[in-house]
Amino acid sequence: MKTFTRMIRRYVLATAAVVLLVVSLLLGLTVYLGLHYGETSDDRARIGTLAEALTPTADGLQFDPAQTPAQWMQGYAWAMVLDGNGTVIWQYDLPKNLNKRYTASEIASFSRWYLDDWPVFCWTPDYGLFVAAQPRGSVWKYNIYSSAALMYAAAAGLLPTLGVLLAAVVGCCVFFSWRGARQLRAIAAGLDTIADGGTVELPTTGYAGELADAVNRASEQLRRRKEIIARRDDARTNWIAGVSHDVRTPLALILGWAEQLEQDAALPAAVRQKAGNIRTQSEKLRALIEDLNLTSKLQYGAQPLRRQPVQAGPLLRRLAAEFCESPLAVGCDMAVELSPDADKAVLHADAALLGRAVENLLNNAARHNAPGVHITLAAALRENALELTVADDGAGYPAAVLHALQTGETGANTPHILGLHVVEQIAQAHGGSVQFMQNAPQGAKAVVTLPTENQAHR
Amino acid sequence: MTTIYDADILLVDDNPDLLALVADNLHTAGYKTVRTAASCADAKTAFARRRPELMILDINLPDGDGFGLFRDLHAGSDVPALFLSARDADADRLFGLGLGADDYLTKPFLMQELLLRVQHILQRAYRAELCRPRTVALGSVTVDLQDAAVHRAEGTAALTATERAILQKLADERGHIVTYDALCEAVWGADYYGYENSLNVHIRHLREKIEADPGRPQWLVTARGIGYKLAGEM
């Protein structure tokens, strides 16, 4: 929208500039011509001045002695003064054929036109009629008449007419630029739609038809590509879901039987130990399947978040209690440390997913460390964000794992960190983040930052 | 039904191995009556013969799905149910719980977890009928919850109403951690905030009455930052 306002404004301004340029050029030209051709006549005295310079003296009419008569007459061919009867009473360089008595009709004629082709100018001082002629062919003389009413009307209408003309020019500019912009606006709207992920089908008529056609083709291209990607993502997610589904029942049996054997008091301890190992490995496999499923769903946006207001304290205590009850936690020392404001903090979160993230972090701490490890689940509130820390005093992250977690680099030798990757994805899905680091003086530490309710709603 | 172990449990799954495994484990855990069915039709017959106290249902069945079965069976009764499924699709989980199922567990699962959930569902659903533990044996000390009395070798002490409520909740879940939240809610109701300090005081008094050495509790143990646990009989 702004683009078009800007466009129309530019168009109008450009037109105004063109008009201004033409007008100033015309003015400049006029001034130049006036200066150039008017210059020669400038040192010539005006007819009135010349007439006033002539004064009656005892010796008849005399030019003001400030200048010589030749100087006064500079630019004029000749001059004469007629009395009331048309008789020449004074003259300067008057051609012989013109030295005569003039009738009233002759005077009336030359006062308007020429006298024997001489362009003459008249002035009526007290002493008679002063007539001066400029050289033949040097002046173009014409008389203009007009009705007074017309002249008054023209004078009065000058400003309004100028105003109307200006308005017409501006109006035309705005109209034509708006018409031009309208077509482009449809194309811009189409581009906006494409940018927002939609598809468009613009009419390809009008002067911008080619452009519209190109936009249509780009839109179609993107749509097709998106469809292919969506189909591939769907296939991948479905494949993972399908495989994990088929694996689930056999694994449930393996897990169940192993558990049973492990608890069978009739079996030798060594056998029960092995059954325990089968159980542990099956559990790992189970976690892997769940993470694999979740990660593919989160990655392709197939996992809808069911966010609800959740109070942090009770949720974290429940998760910690569940972890403590699980076989993995045997031998671990677990502590929960919540600051009072973090305890009461309300998250806008999918409690099941968040639980999964915390579970993964706690399980990780228990699984990769020897019994006796101290695990701390802590939470503190920092500027509308809940900082959730899971730390232990065990072996810490192996260097390769930490590198992969911190840089996000993947490659052939990337360690398997699916469980922690899921934690990262869950945090991100909630608008948060996670940082993995070594704990001081030893052990691993993960800090999950989640926006609290107020911030999440903003 | 005086204890949860008297409950009649109907187990429906199309996999005979899994059916046997779960039934076996439920028996081992002490449940006296476990009936199994491998299809919707079998389940309906078993249900008609006698109404179970709990249903454990698979979702993929040869002649229908567990959701439909649950709807049919649940319609005329209020039998609690737990879905056990290889489908973990979230929609399924929600759908199952939306129908009114009490819980949903995805395969593979730990037997311990299944047993725990079964125990919870039964305790919750039949709270009124079940005889809650009336006496709690803590080594040489015996607590009579009904009379709110602690019997020790050196004499008898009385429990306050709050102490009795706390101990009752812990005894209900004996062997498991009870979070502060669950404990406070059981004693003071849903709006329990601000009672945590009060809870600590009551626990201290309770320990003075039931523990041999209240400074180093043997029965009423603290899960740091989480809650408390009444240790199982040794």
Main attributes?
heterodimer, A: 458 residues, alpha+beta, 4 domains, B: 234 residues, alpha/beta, Arc Repressor Mutant, subunit A, 4-stranded antiparallel beta sheet, 8 helices, 40% helix
Number of helices of chain B: 8
The total domain count of chain A is: 4
The assigned structural class of chain A equals: alpha+beta
What's the CATH first level of the largest domain in chain A? Answer: Alpha Beta
Strand content of chain A: 15-25%
Strands of the widest sheet of chain B, in order across it, are 2-1-3-6-7
Radius of gyration of chain B: 21 Å
- In CATH, the architecture of the largest domain in chain A is 2-Layer Sandwich
Largest sheet of chain B: 5 strands, parallel
**CATH T-level fold name of the largest domain in chain B:** Rossmann fold
- Helical coverage of chain A, percent range: 55-70%
In words, what does this structure look like?
The complex is a heterodimer of chains A (458) and B (234). Chain A is α+β, with helices and mostly antiparallel strands. Chain A folds into 4 domains: 2-42 and 145-179, no CATH class; 47-133, no CATH class; 210-291; 305-457, Heat Shock Protein 90 (2-Layer Sandwich), CATH 3.30.565. Chain A is 56% helix and 17% strand. Chain A has helices spanning 2-42, 47-53, 69-72, 104-112, 148-195, 209-263, 269-299, 312-325, 340-344, 351-367, 399-407, 418-429, 453-457; strands spanning 54-57, 60-63, 78-82, 88-92, 114-115, 118-123, 129-133, 308-311, 333-338, 346-349, 374-382, 385-392, 433-438, 444-451. In chain A, α1 (2-42) runs antiparallel to α5 (148-195). The longest helix of chain A is centred in the middle third of the chain and has 55 residues, at 209-263. Chain A is rod-shaped. The longest helix of chain B has 15 residues, at 111-125. In chain B, α6 packs across α7 (180-188) and α6 (161-172) packs across α8. Helices cover 40% and strands 24% of the residues of chain B. The two termini of chain B are 27 Å apart. With 234 residues, chain B is α/β, with parallel strands linked by helices. In chain B, strands 2-1-3-6-7 form a 5-stranded parallel sheet, sandwiched between helices. In chain B, strands 8-9-10-11 form a 4-stranded antiparallel sheet, with no helix packed on it. Chain B has 2 domains: 4-125, Response regulator (Rossmann fold), CATH 3.40.50.2300; 135-230, Arc Repressor Mutant, subunit A (Orthogonal Bundle), CATH 1.10.10. The mean pLDDT of chain B is 86. Chain B has helices at 16-29, 40-49, 66-75, 90-98, 111-125, 161-172, 180-188, 196-210, and strands spanning 8-12, 33-37, 54-58, 60-61, 64-65, 81-85, 103-106, 135-138, 141-144, 149-152, 155-158, 177-179, 220-223, 227-230. Chain B contains 8 helices and 14 strands. Chain A binds chain B through residues 241, 244-246, 248-249, 251-257, 259-260, 282-283, 285-286, 290, 293, 303-304, 306, 313-314, 317-318, 320-321, 324-327, 334-338, 344, 377, and chain B through 15, 17-18, 21-22, 24-25, 28, 86-90, 94, 106-112, 116, 176-182, 193, 223-227.
